[in-house]
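Retro notes - structure team

What went well: the batch runner handled both jobs without manual restarts.
What didn't: labels got mixed up in the shared folder, which is why I'm recording both outputs here explicitly, each with its sequence directly above its tokens.

Job 1
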Amino acid sequence: MSNRIALLSSTGGSVVKTLLRNNPDINLDLIITDRKCPAENISDEFSIPNVRIDEKSNIKFSEKLLEILISNDIDYVVVFFSRLLQGNILNNYNNKLINFHPALLPDFPGMNGFERAIRNQKKFIGSTVHFIDEGMDTGKKIIELRYHRKNECKDRLRHIVFSQQVASLNEVLKNLKNNRALNTLGPENKNKKDNTNLDLLSKESLLIYNKLIQSS
């Protein structure tokens, strides 16, 4: 039996929606939000159950989230979410909460990471997939994709990072649905000059990335 996977989102859900439209073999088992947001529309378009948790306190939200995950037999959670998870969920779902961050870490953690990376004028921009721990974007990295900036405008760079995230999500979901372990990045993938890390992607995920890059 394949892993059951939930999406936790407080955003527009455009990364997830784009992947589901481009790869019909990918599916999710539950969508969880903390507010009315466009991510809930994915539930209608793809017939995925949706639960909204109206709770302002992070710890109480995390407690209710844990209850929902357990009651729905969820094995892993992919996270596009702006709040910190706290309490027992971090132990119960250790190495099973997977965050998708639109910037390179540890340089640009937290909110507005992409915008801060653009202003910083560093040579590389990129995106990071990592396990969630008790810190702010401090968990072990699973995928880090980088792009060597040239003279692209901000919108083009945003589309590149968006495409990275769609491809990374495909890679993660494909592995989880096939019951394959998610390996964390080793020393060979860190601090490599001029390394985009696209070799971390399977052929299928790389095809999705290239298709999206060429579409804009």
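Job 2
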Amino acid sequence: MCLMAFAWDPRGSTTLLMVANRDEFYARPTAPADWWKDHPDIWAGRDLAAGGTWMGITRQGRFAAITNYREGGRNDPAAPSRGGLVSGFLAGTSTPASYLRDLARRAEPFNGFNLVVGELFGRTPSLWYLSHRRGHSATSPEALAAGVYGLSNAVLDTPWPKVVRTTAALATLKATEARTPAYLQMLSDTTVAEDAQLPSTGISLERERALSAAFIITPDYGTRAQTVIRATRDGHVEAAERGFDNDEQARLLIPGSLRQASFEVSNTARR
């Protein structure tokens, strides 16, 4: 996943509103979001190459999402899959803080990532963030205060143009009580940043340009999934994912899959 914006308010009527684009090579096998057969309480898409996921939520209100930290030329192709960090939290019982503290101690083998995990309900709902760059010690886990955040392939709230635009658009749409289609449209912005605004992440200028759009379309790589998750304080969760299998579907905005889930978090998780 390469772009997310989210509004977090543990005491508000909407606890979490998350919108995200997952960017990946079209050739990488992927299953659209659904309830997992081996973990029936997890709703998420699935990376069929490694078995993990990029974002998901559970019937108990556990949430996790990840983006890669982009550092051209520094990735180790033999490193363990980062998607397992998301599914590991979703399938586990550790608190967000303890999960990230343990991960920070063992993050060295992984390529760079940004991980957001949380328990959205209960007596002390919380959302936590951890960043790791290859060759560096992981940052200390950070409990996120209520607010609106943006995240791509650098640290949280790095002001890349697409992060700034998407975060501002999320705040505007949330204020109008927009529904899922409006957020999916927002995530489909193909605006490319001006060269002077591009980050320098160790890849070619041409590639930086292509990846500067919120909705990426290239012949072999692009936005594969768009996800909107809304969790309300009364324990209701709505989730939707729109998937694209190739660049033609993406250019026409004709998804290869559209998945939705609506459920109530169990009473025990709300206490």
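One thing worth noting from job 2: The chain has a mean pLDDT of 96.
We'll revisit the folder naming next retro.
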